[in-house]
Amino acid sequence: MIIYYAHSKKIYNTKREEEERNKILQKFPKAELICPNRDVGEKFSLAPYLKIVRDCNIVVCSEFDGFVGKGVYWEILTAMDNNKPVFNVTKDFKKVTDIIIVDKNDWTVKYGKVVC
Question: Which CATH number, 3.40.50.2300, 3.40.50.450, 3.30.460.10, 3.30.710.10, labels domain 2-115?
Fold first, then answer.
């Protein structure tokens, strides 16, 4: 099973990122976890990340200040459009049932809101 960890660049290389990665691996101990920060790197386009999302089995997302940026929004939407289950690590792995746009002008933090 391959899990994609969709999360804000604002938590890249932080203790929070490490804690969330560990939490995902504890929940899914036999999974291969793909962290875009650690395993993919900067691609300067969303397309490579969305391809990984389409190829994985599960997406686990993380909110930042209760929202998701544009990249995470599109990763979640792509997963849902491809019938991949999406779980929210911030909300104890509750299943994501919808994602909505909140502020099209704030690509970094408050672009979207996850609904569980």
Answer: 3.40.50.450
